[in-house]
Hints:
With 436 residues, this protein is of the alpha/beta class.
Amino acid sequence: MPKPVVAIVGRPNVGKSTLFNRLTGARVAIVEDTPGVTRDRLYRDAEWRGRQFTLVDTGGIAARPDDPLVAQVRRQAEQALAEADVILFVVDTRTGLTADDEEVAELLRRSGRPVILVANKVEDFSDPSLTHEFYRLGLGDPLPVSAIHGLNVGDLLDRVVDLLPAAPVEEEGTALKVAVVGRPNVGKSSIVNRLLGEERLIVSDLPGTTRDAIDTYIRQGEREYILIDTAGMRRKSRIADPTEHYSVLRALKAVERADVVLVVLDGTEGVTEQDKKIAGYGHEQGKASIIIVNKWDLVPRDDKTMARYEEMIRQELSFMSYAPILFISALTGQRVARILPALDAVGAEASRRVATGTLNSIVREAVMLTPPPAVKGQAVKIFYATQVKVKPPTFIFFCNRPEDVHFSYQRYLENQLRQAFGFEGTPLRLLFRHSK
Ligand code: GDP
Ligand code: GDP
C-alpha cells in the first residue's frame, strides 16, 4: 500500500529542513536505518495518530544554484504538485511576505490541492499580528509554528493527517507484486520487455512519455505477476531533468508495494554506490529481493568469472546476503526464463510460516550449542520463540534480558533459522522481548 506523500515547499531559509527534521524527528516515528545503508534524506517516512506518510523536503531537491530564486521555488512547487497529496507551504514571519511567496501561492491555489500555510518562526503565540499579512495569500488561515522549538507542530500534524486521502483498502489477489529497480540504463525496461515476451514497453533513449504509475500484469500458466510502475521505469531522462530526483521517491513507492524486488545491476559496471542505495530500499522495508546482474553478454568471462562476480556482490551488498543472484542478458534472453520461477520461490519464502514446535526445537538446539554470552556475570536466557508475522518472517524471542542479547548473537540465531528453514531471498526480523 503506497503511503500518501506530503511535500514541504517554500523559499530558501524559511525553515523547511528544520521543519522536515522536526516532523520526522522526536515526536514522530522514523523508519529505522540499517547500518551501512545510506538513504536519501530528502524523503522520510513519518507517522502521526496511526497514519503513515512520506515527507518530502523539496528544498533539497530543486536546488539549482544558477537559477533565479523564484524559478527554484516555482520548480519545487510544480514538483510537489506532481507528486504530493498534501502540500506544506512554509513562509517566514521574520522576513514577512515576499513577492516570491505570492507567486508560489498563486500556483498552489490554482492547483486546488490541499495546502497548509505554515507561518514559521513564531515564538510568541500571543501576537496575532505576526501572521496577519499572510492571509493575503488566499490559502486560508496561516498556522503559526516554530519549527526550531517544535511549537504547535502537533497541531500541524493533526491538520496534515486530516487532509490525507482515506487509507486505501489493502490490495488483494494472488498475483505476486514485483518492483524492478536499478539505476538508469542498467536494462530494467529491456528485462520487463523480455518478461512480457513482446515489445509492449518501449526501450529507447528518448525522454519520457508519461509520469503516471502504470502496472503491468503478466500471467504464466496459473501464476500471475504485477510489475509495479513500469511506466516510471521506462521513462528516460539522460537530459538533466529535475523531476528525475523524484525517481528515488518513485522507486521507494514501488518497493513499498512489492512482494519481491528485482534489483538490477549492470554487469559491465559492478556495484556502484547508487546501486547499494537502491538495493537498500527493499532491505530496509523488509522486502524479499533478487539481484539481477544484467548485460552478462558483454562481460568477458572464463569458468571462474561468475563465482568471482558473486563474491564481489556479496561483499558490496553484504547487508542482503540472503538474496539470490541471477546472471542474465536481456539482450540475448540468456537465463531470463529463470526470473519468474525465482520470483515464485522467493515470494513463497517471504510468506512462509514455520510451526511453533519445530521453531522451538531449532532454537533450543541452537542455544544449547552456543548459549548467549553472559553480560556482567549474569546469564542471558532465551526461553521461547514464536513467529508473529510473514513478509518478512518475524520472530519474537522471549528472554530474561532482551537488551543483553548481543547483535552478533542475533546474527547467530538468524543463521540457525536460515540453516533450518531456508528463507532464501527474504530478510528476517528477530525481536527480543522480556519474559520471566
Ligand atoms: P530552508 O532553507 O527553508 O530549509 O531553511 P532551514 O531549515 O535551513 O532554516 C533556515 C534558518 O532559519 C536556520 O538558521 C534555522 O535555524 C532558522 N529557523 C528555522 N525554523 C526556525 C524557527 O522556528 N524560529 C527561528 N527563530 N528560526 C528558525
Ligand atoms: P533502463 O533504463 O534500466 O530501463 O535500461 P534499458 O532497458 O532502457 O536499457 C539501456 C540500454 O542497455 C539499452 O540500449 C539496451 O538496449 C541496453 N541493454 C539492456 N539490456 C542489455 C543486455 O542484457 N545486454 C546488452 N548488451 N545491452 C543491454
